[in-house]
Amino acid sequence: MSMIGDLTSLDLAALVASRVCHDIISPVGAITNGLEVLDEEGNEDMRDFAMDLIRKSARQASAKLQFARLAFGAAGSAGAEIDLGDAQKVAAGFLENEKADLSWEVPRLLMGKNRVKLLLNLILIANQCVPRGGMITVSMEGDQETPTFRLAVTGPSAKVPGLVTQILSGVEPERIDAHSVQSVYTILLARECSMDLHLVKEDEVVVITASHVS
């Protein structure tokens, strides 16, 4: 049996939790550093710097947690639907702290939560394709029940991450850890939603698609 097939629900939950903690530990640590500066006696300039650091880091932590809540969390009961407008809001908030910009061309409608979680996880993968920054254009064809998501990613040195390519193509990673679990989780979401994933580079554009399997 494959490594992904052997992954238990408890292991998956632990690895996803580790991934979320990894994403928010930096801004939370920065808040702690800012508070330590405030506790020390110093000049007013340092106090202003600390307050700016705390405000910025608190916004980053909040945006990352709101994104994680929809991308990884339960987000309601089984069979619940999520407003794609909410997905756009958390995606935009998350990418404000990243190097990539977001162009959202998806209609606002209600969609099953797992499909929305899949779309948000595809945005995370798209963000990995432009480490030096760029544009992620998200569009959708079809309806709530049979959607096709398309993410076109452009930017300097846009590339398809090797690990992501392997996992999405069905090649088992040597080990599943907090670094690789997000790609694995994306595959599991796609299977649950009966959708096929494809990731290719066309000229200078990385194109990610998730299409409904008839």
* Helical amount: 40-55%
Proportion of beta-strand residues: 15-25%
Task: State the shape.
Answer: globular
Q: What structural category arises from helix and sheet content?
A: alpha+beta
Written as H for each helix and E for each strand, in order along the chain, the element string is HHHEHEEHEEHHEE
What is the fourth-level CATH superfamily? Answer: Histidine kinase-like ATPase, C-terminal domain
Straight-line distance between termini: 26 Å
Largest sheet: 5 strands, mixed
* Mean pLDDT across residues: 89
Number of strands: 7
| CATH domain topology | Heat Shock Protein 90
Determine and state the CATH class: Alpha Beta
Q: Given the structure, what is the number of helices? A: 7
Radius of gyration: 19 Å
Can you walk through the features of this model?
This protein is an alpha+beta fold and 214 residues long. The chain has a single domain (3-212), classed as Heat Shock Protein 90 (2-Layer Sandwich). 51% of the residues lie in helices and 20% in strands. The chain has seven helices and seven strands; from the N terminus they run αααβαββαββααββ. It has helices spanning 3-6, 9-39, 44-71, 84-95, 113-128, 162-168, 181-192, and strands at residues 81-83, 100-105, 110-112, 134-141, 148-154, 195-202, 205-212. The strands form two sheets. The chain has a five-stranded mixed β-sheet, covered by helices on one side. It has a two-stranded antiparallel sheet with strand order 1-3. A hairpin with a 2-residue loop joins strand 6 and strand 7 (205-212). It starts with a helix and ends with a strand.
